[in-house]
């Protein structure tokens, strides 16, 4: 009978991967090795499913996010929810909003849809623009590299938060979700571009790239067939780490009153509105804050694990 080698403890260095393993194969192997990563992935999947199924979940709870239930609040106590823990009951699974009586479960799941939609779309813009700029700067070099590098420096030195607040405050009659996605994505791409540029510089003189160039392959074919697969690992890891920052940015802008506008629900907006009731109805503050905290934490832990797997040199301090 052959003895089975014990599995390494959580957080220990991963065993050497078989040659030719793809980034996704490496990620799956690490998920099986680390219980904490599996838990983070499960939480991420749960939030994504909750966001996708928000209309059906709201209907399952029996309330729309904008529907008032005056019978669930006490008009003689300033509109505070009736019952314990913010009005939690079989009719309202997470309680109700003070004064209006709107169902918190429905508003939280629809808020997840808004927050994750903005975070994912902004991340797509950042990753696509950053990867394209980084590959172009690293591969072509010269004037192309100089122009793109200076544009990266200019964008990263710009006071992005002040600009976001100013632009979102001035723009009145526009789709807030589209505008927030574009504005958040506008300032995020240089970080990805710098990572990809460094990887491209190390790849463009590899033997297989020189062989493709000598064999008559054009720049587009080399970039898409040889360079892009080589930078995919760090890009995947960086993408996962971008999402929690995007969620936090959307929540912060909505908290400041320049993000998603009522009656569209948002976690940041709900937290801002709950400040006035934190002494009399603390559950109104706790519930959206907990969902925001768990979403950011799960994406961060998953992103850290993917960075350790796919870009170990980039994760070293």
Can you walk through the features of this model?
The structure is a single chain. This protein is mostly helical. The protein contains twelve helices and two strands, in the order αααββααααααααα. The chain has a two-stranded antiparallel ribbon with strand order 1-2. A hairpin with a 5-residue loop joins strand 1 (73-74) and strand 2. Helix 4 (104-140) packs parallel to helix 8. The model is unreliable at 1-17 (pLDDT under 50).
Summarize this structure briefly.
By secondary structure, the protein is mostly helical. Helices cover 66% and strands 1% of the residues.
Order of H and E elements: HHHEEHHHHHHHHH
Outline the biggest β-sheet: 2 strands, antiparallel
* Nearest-integer average pLDDT: 83
| Head-to-tail CA distance between termini | 44 Å
Low-confidence stretches: 1-17
Give the spatial strand order of the biggest sheet.
Answer: 1-2
Put simply, the count of helices is 12
The backbone outline, from C-alpha atoms, is elongated
Give the number of DSSP strands.
2
* Structural class by sheet pairing and helices: mainly alpha
The helix content is 55-70%
The share of residues in extended strands comes to: under 5%
Task: Give the secondary structure arrangement, pairings included.
Layout: H1 23-33, H2 35-52, H3 54-61, E1 73-74, E2 80-81, H4 104-140, H5 142-157, H6 160-170, H7 176-186, H8 189-203, H9 207-214, H10 219-255, H11 267-274, H12 282-310
Antiparallel strand pairs: 1-2
Helix pairs in contact: 1-12, 2-4, 2-12, 3-4, 4-5, 4-7, 4-8, 4-10, 5-8, 8-10, 9-10, 10-11, 10-12, 11-12
């Amino acid at each position: 009978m052959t003895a089975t080698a014990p599995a390494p403890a959580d957080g220990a260095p991963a065993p050497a991967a078989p040659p030719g393993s793809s980034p996704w194969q490496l990620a799956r192997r690490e998920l099986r090795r680390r219980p904490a990563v599996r838990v983070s992935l499960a939480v991420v999947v749960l939030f994504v499913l909750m966001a996708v199924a928000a209309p059906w979940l709201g209907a399952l709870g029996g309330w729309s996010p904008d529907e008032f239930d005056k019978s669930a609040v006490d008009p003689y106590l300033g509109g505070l929810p009736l019952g314990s823990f913010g009005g939690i009951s079989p009719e309202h699974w997470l309680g109700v909003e003070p004064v209006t009586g709107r169902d918190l479960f429905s508003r939280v799941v629809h808020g997840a849809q808004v927050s994750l939609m903005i975070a994912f779309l902004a991340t797509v813009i950042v990753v696509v623009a950053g990867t394209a700029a980084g590959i172009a700067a690293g591969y072509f070099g010269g004037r192309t590299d100089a122009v793109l590098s200076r544009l990266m420096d200019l964008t990263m030195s710009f006071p992005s938060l002040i600009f976001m607040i100013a632009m979102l405050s001035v723009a009145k009659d526009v789709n807030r979700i589209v505008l927030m996605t574009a504005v958040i994505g506008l300032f995020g791409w240089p970080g990805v571009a710098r990572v990809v540029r460094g990887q491209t510089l190390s790849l463009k003189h590899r033997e297989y790239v020189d062989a493709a160039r000598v064999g008559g392959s054009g720049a587009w074919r080399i970039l898409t067939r040889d360079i892009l697969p080589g930078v995919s690992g760090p890009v995947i890891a960086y993408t996962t780490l971008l999402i929690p920052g995007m969620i936090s940015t959307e929540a912060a802008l909505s908290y400041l009153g320049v993000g998603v506008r009522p009656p569209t629900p948002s976690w940041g907006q709900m937290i801002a509105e709950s400040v006035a009731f934190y002494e009399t109805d603390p559950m109104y503050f706790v519930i959206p804050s907990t969902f925001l905290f768990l979403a950011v934490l799960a994406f961060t832990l998953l992103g850290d694990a993917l960075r350790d797997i796919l870009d170990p040199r980039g994760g070293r301090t």
